[in-house]
Amino acid sequence: MTRTSSSADAWKAEVASIRDTVESIGIAIVMAFLLRAFLIEAFVIPTGSMAPRLMGEHYNLRCPYCGWEYDHGHQVVAKIERAEKYPPRGATCPNCRREYLLDEAHEAHIDGGDRVLVIKYLYTFIDPKPWDVIVFRNPQNNRENFIKRLVGLPGETLEIVRGDLWVKRPGSDTWSIRRKPHHVQKAMWQILHDSDYPLVNPPQAPPRWIAPTDDDGRWDLTSQHTRRMRFKGGDRGTIVFDGANGGFFPFYGYNKRDQVRSQIRYQYNYDICSDLKLSLVFTPGEADSRIALVFDVLDQRLAADISADGVVRLWQQSRRPADGADGTAGQRAAQWFADGPWTLWEQGLIAPLQPGRGYELALTNVDFRLTLRIDDEVVLESTDQDYPADYVAVKARLAPRILADTPLPDTKVAISAGGGPSDLLHVRLSRDVYYTAMFRSRPQGTAGQYARDDPEYKRLPEAWDAKPGWAVTGNPIKLDDDSFFVLGDNSPQSLDSRRWMQAAPTLRLYDKGPGGKTSRRYQLGTVPRYNIIGKAVFVYWPAGLRVPGLPSLPLVPNVGKMRLIR
């Protein structure tokens, strides 16, 4: 009897355990559906409009010339097999600017797009902020979801000028630069050159950092293929970054080199990046070692100097054209020289630098602010009085050159050292996102009817797509109530607010007034508030790593590329 009773109890306990397990699984499934419906949803990114922060289908490449690893977008033209390798046509390294080899040995697998988590309905409780990365229903086709960076809020007026975003806030007649928070800016830097990846194939390739011919050998740039740059000591000596052949052009390794040029108003003498970051590890050899980081941007020279005794300063100096460079179209090779006295912007005192110890220095010139960081701490920063973001002055200075198609002053980056010897390592030059100027697109199909009904389109339909896009230089946009403006980080390839000339029929296009009269409600080029799904916060599954022997199954989590979205 006892044995039978024990068997029955065991059976009941097993059934209860199975029931608990089934209930737990059921609750988990229900919770997952509730989370997806009301809190968090996962999305996969199909295109590279937010590259290099967020990837669509892409190749992961390593440059055969310098070793730099970068992602290059795959243009979907036919069905692909994940197990097969394909030639990444049009790929060019963003570090050394060499085109990728198109031979069988350098073919690569195509990886899937990043998978991201989106907090839904967040903006029901808080207002969207500029520079948030959001997911929304595409206003041109409500069946598609897009991911972009939100840059304009209701009531604001926006205009892109030389890659920067300017804003006029509601109730104000004053333009100001739309600056990014530090954590956003940190995520948006893009590589121009990293000395840890010098061009070593072919071996005789010239270095990107060069010393003037009158340097008298004060710099040794031969150590470790220029990975280590050594100042031997003595009077001040200078090295300059070789920015020839488009070194400061807003180039994206993710894109084909000449991609979508027909859609972009590139002006090679005008679209030159001057929002830059120069970072390096500086090791002073003696107590009197000193270093200066220098940017030549537009018509001024900006510099930060750091002495081992702890004195740090920010400087500015005006630049002028060389004699005979009158700014006419024939003067394309005109050089600009620093002229006039230096103006001290800011000065400070930090703890003396210890000889033999490395210090991380970073000078950034971005959004009309010059900042010096040491070991990732701000030690000096220009003020608005030092470095005014003057919209009127910027446009007045640029307009004559744009109209005459003449070059802007050349951009230069230099490093000067003096006093005792010093070493430089990990020298990296980066640029900010540069928002390009795009033409309008011609409205097509049913979704284009709303634009074709626009009074401006009816007046001159043939001139519609020859005009600049929304918020592009010369065509500012004032946002209506509950309308938002978005841009992609991969500006040349992004189909974003600048080019939206269509409207899905399912949008709330019209308002009805007294007597049944209708008025246009939707503003072309914007995202209505009701189309916003939520804020993208985390890449939970970047392209997975492939299992050896099973190349078609990239199932190994790539933990190193999981990241917060900034």
UniProtKB/TrEMBL annotation:
Keywords: Hydrolase, Membrane, Transmembrane, Transmembrane helix. The keyword Transmembrane helix applies. It catalyses: Cleavage of hydrophobic, N-terminal signal or leader sequences from secreted and periplasmic proteins. It comes from marine sediment metagenome. GO terms for biological process: signal peptide processing. GO terms for molecular function: serine-type endopeptidase activity; signal peptidase activity. Belongs to the peptidase S26 family. This is signal peptidase I.
